[in-house]
Design brief:
Blueprint (H helix, E strand, L loop, with lengths): L2 H15 L28 E5 L3 E8 L12 H9 L2 E4 L7 H12 L16 H11 L3 H5 L3 H7 L1 H7 L8 H11 L4 E3 L3 H9 L3 H10 L4 H16 L3 H9 L6 H22 L4 E8 L9 H7 L5 E2 L2
Parallel strand pairs: 2-5, 3-4, 3-5
Antiparallel strand pairs: 1-2, 1-6
Helix pairs in contact: 1-3, 1-7, 3-9, 6-10, 11-12, 13-14
Length: 308
């Protein structure tokens, strides 16, 4: 890959990587996302898991939000203040090169068919438009594995839809934690998260890419519903909306949700062995439905309590 192409890729890839933990779940949004209705209506779901000397807050997050979207509650701010440590899905580095390097290492392969041939014919015009808007030559995308091509377009999606990576829940929590001089750690690394996609079947990768090319009007409605469900703490609605996401193949859902939830529940169980207070903030989709982190904990004999 030529140096100029690589630089362009890094520039447009970074906004997408900033929301890597969000993956395809509610990644599409409206050009004019709704504002929070009122302070009383906003209460993103949060639980606690505790024993005699350990308390873990478990907060469901929205990785990308419109600028200045009101979502913080006294309970969330209290948990953040009380916590000795903040744990996120990943801790993204500030350096774009550090974020793009794993993608270039995993996502580039020789002798691939053009990216346009990897989506249904009726979606090729939408793909061509997104590639043109990215400012990255189409020849670069043709060198990318299908999952990587999808991620390289995430920045375009977020820009089109007016979402601000710095306004996401994790970004705001991290800023507060850093300001208080408290540690921040991640359950996973960027390399691990990309590896989930890199190991997917080509069929699932293509479903993921095609899902990004759906009708913007449908995306607008879906985003509004998801944002409303999340901000009001309606876990049942979040589960229903996630389950209706056709871009999530069974393989993708198992790899990105269930398997990770199992590992995170194991991590949480082990974390109870260490005294202290921790705020764990992960995508809200992981805290809803039959395969949720809470249900994985329940299977281990551990009970969570809803506190927000």
């Amino acid at each position: 890959m030529k140096a100029t192409h690589r630089q362009a890729w890094k520039k447009h890839l970074r906004p997408g990587l900033a929301a890597l933990g969000g993956l395809s779940l509610a990644a599409c949004a409206a050009q004019e996302p709704p504002a929070a209705a009122s302070a009383q209506a906003v209460r993103p779901a949060m639980w606690t898991l505790s024993d005699a000397d350990t308390k873990i807050y478990l907060l469901g997050t929205f990785h990308l939000l419109p600028a200045d979207y009101a979502w913080r509650t006294p309970a969330i701010d209290g948990a953040l203040k009380e916590a000795d440590e903040l744990v996120l899905e990943i801790v993204a580095p500030d350096d774009p090169a550090a974020m793009a390097a794993p993608m270039m290492a995993m996502g580039v392969s020789p002798n691939l068919p053009p990216l346009a041939e990897r989506v249904p014919a009726e979606k090729r015009a939408a793909l061509t438009a997104m590639i043109a808007e990215s400012g990255v030559p189409a020849a670069v995308f043709d060198q990318l594995e299908t999952w990587a091509g999808a991620f390289a377009l995430l920045g375009v999606t977020f820009k089109r839809l007016g979402l601000d990576p710095e306004s996401g829940v994790e970004a705001k929590l991290s800023a507060s934690q850093k300001g208080a001089g408290k540690p921040i750690s991640g359950l996973e690394t960027i390399q691990q998260q990309m590896g989930f996609f890199d190991s997917l079947s080509e069929e699932s990768q293509r479903a993921f890419l095609s899902g990004m090319l759906d009708d913007p009007a449908n995306a607008k409605q879906e985003f509004a519903e998801m944002l409303k469900a999340w901000s009001s703490g309606d876990v049942d609605a979040m589960d229903r909306i996630f389950n209706e996401d056709v871009s999530m193949s069974a393989e993708l859902r198992d790899r990105l949700l269930k398997q990770r939830n199992v590992r995170w529940a194991e991590w949480l169980q082990k974390r109870l062995d260490k005294p202290g207070t921790v705020l764990v903030a992960v995508g809200a989709g992981h805290l809803a439905g039959a395969d949720s982190v809470q249900n994985q904990l329940k299977a281990r004999g551990l009970k969570t309590k809803r506190v927000n």
